[in-house]
Amino acid sequence: MVDLDKILHNGKALFLAYDHGLEHSPKDFEKGDEFTGAVDPQFILDIAHKGGYTAVALQKGTAEKYYTVWGADERNEVPLIVKLNGKTNIPKVEPYSPLICSVEEAIGLGASAVGYTVFVGSEHEGEMLEIFGAITHEAHAKGLPVVAWMYPRGKWVTEKYGSDTNPDIVAYAARVGLEADADIVKVKYTGDRESFAKVVQAAGRTKVVLSGGEKTEKPEEFIQTVKDVMAAGATGVAVGRNVWKSSDPLKVTEEIKKIVFG
Amino acid sequence: MVDLDKILHNGKALFLAYDHGLEHSPKDFEKGDEFTGAVDPQFILDIAHKGGYTAVALQKGTAEKYYTVWGADERNEVPLIVKLNGKTNIPKVEPYSPLICSVEEAIGLGASAVGYTVFVGSEHEGEMLEIFGAITHEAHAKGLPVVAWMYPRGKWVTEKYGSDTNPDIVAYAARVGLEADADIVKVKYTGDRESFAKVVQAAGRTKVVLSGGEKTEKPEEFIQTVKDVMAAGATGVAVGRNVWKSSDPLKVTEEIKKIVFG
Amino acid sequence: MVDLDKILHNGKALFLAYDHGLEHSPKDFEKGDEFTGAVDPQFILDIAHKGGYTAVALQKGTAEKYYTVWGADERNEVPLIVKLNGKTNIPKVEPYSPLICSVEEAIGLGASAVGYTVFVGSEHEGEMLEIFGAITHEAHAKGLPVVAWMYPRGKWVTEKYGSDTNPDIVAYAARVGLEADADIVKVKYTGDRESFAKVVQAAGRTKVVLSGGEKTEKPEEFIQTVKDVMAAGATGVAVGRNVWKSSDPLKVTEEIKKIVFG
Amino acid sequence: MVDLDKILHNGKALFLAYDHGLEHSPKDFEKGDEFTGAVDPQFILDIAHKGGYTAVALQKGTAEKYYTVWGADERNEVPLIVKLNGKTNIPKVEPYSPLICSVEEAIGLGASAVGYTVFVGSEHEGEMLEIFGAITHEAHAKGLPVVAWMYPRGKWVTEKYGSDTNPDIVAYAARVGLEADADIVKVKYTGDRESFAKVVQAAGRTKVVLSGGEKTEKPEEFIQTVKDVMAAGATGVAVGRNVWKSSDPLKVTEEIKKIVFG
Amino acid sequence: MVDLDKILHNGKALFLAYDHGLEHSPKDFEKGDEFTGAVDPQFILDIAHKGGYTAVALQKGTAEKYYTVWGADERNEVPLIVKLNGKTNIPKVEPYSPLICSVEEAIGLGASAVGYTVFVGSEHEGEMLEIFGAITHEAHAKGLPVVAWMYPRGKWVTEKYGSDTNPDIVAYAARVGLEADADIVKVKYTGDRESFAKVVQAAGRTKVVLSGGEKTEKPEEFIQTVKDVMAAGATGVAVGRNVWKSSDPLKVTEEIKKIVFG
């Protein structure tokens, strides 16, 4: 039986996501020409631990070298979501995210759940759905929840929906998550509470968490988004840059927690 | 030994199909800008149960979250067909439907039968026939019937046959189902009783069910189609939108049942 | 040890081939706008049985539903060749015939031999030779003969040889059969006895059977071809349309038998 | 431990190669419009036996039907090299040679060694190196030497090196053989003794045999080539057309043997 | 538990890399028109042994024929890194390096660690990351460190970063190594100490070694680079041409050692 409570608190999700080095390059960790503390996974795990996150999402390498084997200490009381696939942002091709870690390896690393990205609408959507199907089968058989990064992407998404935050395509992506057996889908904000409520409705018993996205210019904008998605029925948020690029990550965390956990 | 009676009643089929969220997007569940009850799989399972359907066809995620694990109750007295493959309608490529669920997983979800789509005539027809061949082998070895969504599709179908309801291509698709070992083929209506009778004839001992398709403007049109296909020798119908987009799904169901079960 | 006698009589082959529904569409079974009896696999199995064919070649679905499981009776005294691959004639691509049935499944269906098509010269020749290599290995390990439909096909065949009945390419295809370990190759007629004798010579210890091909306008033309190929050293013939599209299949069969079995 | 002595005599190699029916078509066996005796594998095995070849290289089908199962007699005292991959010369694509036979099957056929072609520089070089890597692993684990047909081929070879006998590319191909763990590489003549000596040097502990190639107009030309490559440090020669297209194969063989075995 | 000390000395790395015959052709071993001693793997193993290298990196064939089976003597006291993938420089395609050796085979050859190249930014990046993911899993399960040749390459790298030594892309490549679970990354020099320090920072607990690259015109240039990277926090260097193309390899080695081991 899949136990979602491993990565939730009172049924709500507060995830700290940290796979940006692979997905966007370490440029995400820079301020001016220097790296901030965010380049260091220990810094992130400290935030996760002190901030009371319900889970932290890492690639297998970061997990193995900072969470599991060498650096294990109180920081690994935060439940771990191992992200199973990932890619760089360099090749300009129809997006595909290769599988870098197996469910079995993730369990060995101490994962409480696994994560997987599906680029809905990409020419390679089918390959990702096939692998996602195998992952949900294996993870569920071993009692692990599956968090799906459901990201509309590729030329046909642009052509048909204009933007990857168009409510119709976000709702579609969330629904694909349900029908393909994700336990939680991580999706972008659609811009308003009403349309996000439809995303939640389309996802049915699959829970919805907000994908935090780029750091907003004004922190209060992000906080408003969190309020809107929670009011729309979301289960929580997965944050990254809006926290660890902030001047005071734990303060931002506290504000988010008030909204998410009520 | 494959036992078709698991998903038939008196040798006739009344299937409720519900994989539209994945195949077409949740737009199929909208009326105006709002979702109708049809967005909720529970609503569908209630129709299936109260309507006396001989089986309901779901993707693995919908099955797992509403039929098998969390929501099991009297609704799962309706036999389950797990649809093993599926895709979104976004990428504009020669159609291919990836395998999302294995026969083994479907059995674990409580399936009485499995379903698989073959896009006959697609550039990827061969890959689907290879996988279909493996599925019929495994399913039959475990006593499960296989229902094949035999859908002509792709640029060469358009070029050679004009339409995917051209009687010649529908009969061809049905025959491919027989030779590739489908137990039941689900095909579109060819437009008249005579040509549909030839489809049934081409399928031989493989049974034929009507694919209900888009909601007709006037319900009586759809009822007439059901009459024609049954008169043509079909084993039954697989309906979706013409039932759950109807203002009174159970009433439509009763009309269909009278024709199918006589 | 592979035992060819299972599908030969006095060392000669008289095969009834019936995979046209998949390969050409059920149009092959029409006369005017109606299907003839040939649309029904039972009709074919009756001819095979009454005509004393040394084997009948079927796709797995036709075999399972008419020969093996549900319809087994005296008709299945005729040895069965299960054709392992097949495709429709719709996609206009370099030809590839996907594997629909495994050797293991064919044995479960009661096969005395297996058949496989290699489109020699196609861009996908390599994939078919790889699979053919695995099939001959497995079939021979289990004592089953392998019949290879060696068909030159694709744009380079046309460019280099003009026609797929050019004696040079037919001899090449037969030789590929020998070197890739076919026990019997099924090839088209080259047009004259002398060139067909070279085909037989190129095939060495791999036996050669004529691929009957389209129904000839005058039956005596086909009979003359049978005489020529047998005189050229062929082991027999694999017939289909020239028999079951005939007005008197058993009479044509008798004429062929006189030539093949002498 | 791999034992090269199985296919060498006093440390020298005299291989008779005979896979031309598959690679070039049976046209290689013609003189005028008729086949010579060379079309018959028995003829070749007789030459191999009487000529005292240290091994004969055959495709699996020729091996199974003439060497192993049905024709086994004194002819199979000649050690067998089963060529594991092969292709026709018809498709005009970047060259790839599909795997037709496994190491395991080759052993079952009585092989003392296995052979595999790598088209160095082809767009499909990588796929062949991957398979070659698996073959050397498996063959060496079972004590079998691996002979690599290292043939530069494809548009980039032509563009960069002009010819596939350019000494730089032949030396490169031989070196790839060493680093990828071939025990013996079969390469074309580079045109002069000095450059061939560098090929041998580049191959290091991997032994080098001459690929005989097309029948030379004057037999003495070929004999001179054999002298040159042996003087350059080659381990021996792999001959085909220069022997079995000769009017007196055994006489040519004797001349070669004098040079190879000294 | 992975034990990096097997291939380090006092926590520092001095690797001798020698896969240039496969990657660049034996031209790398020439001086004028003749091969130098560097064409001979024994010559290299002697340098590795006498120079006190902490490991030598070889392809499987070179390892098997010179290190493991036939040539094993005191030279194999130097720990072995078996490079698992490799390719020639001939095909002008988006770079992909095929897997030639498995982790299991490398262990059988006596490897203390395995190496694998990822061409970051290539169209085939995804395939390499998938395989790299499987390799780190298997190697770590068996206690073997994984050294990743993290090389930015391909048209999009050129388009976006101009050069493969642009500090941004080198830092990105190093970070991919960390997140994908490399224990050591081998990267090119970025041109100055400050930017290389950021590469080391981006790699976190994954150690960084310098990829020596082409022989510099003046040896002191290379020595200066070694000083800079060590000052920047690198763990060591992997050298090849700057050592074995030198007139006095052991002298150069001594100079490097003084810097690396302090």
Q: How would you summarize what this structure contains?
A:
Chain A is α/β, with parallel strands linked by helices and 262 residues long. The first copy, chain A, is built from 11 helices and 10 strands.
List keywords for this structure.
homopentamer; 262 residues; alpha/beta; TIM Barrel; 8-stranded parallel β-barrel; two-stranded antiparallel sheet; 42% helix; globular
User: How many beta-strand elements of chain A?
Assistant: 10
How large is the radius of gyration of chain A? 17 Å
Count helical runs of chain A.
Answer: 11
Largest sheet of chain A: 8 strands, parallel, barrel
H-E order of chain A:
EHEEHEHEHEHEHHEHEHEHH
Strand content of chain A: 15-25%
Biggest interface, CB < 8 A: A-B, 39 and 36 residues
Oligomer: homopentamer
Structural class computed from helices and strand pairing of chain A: alpha/beta
CATH architecture of chain A: Alpha-Beta Barrel
CATH topology group of chain A: TIM Barrel
Task: Give the strand line-up of the largest sheet of chain A.
Answer: 1-4-5-6-7-8-9-10
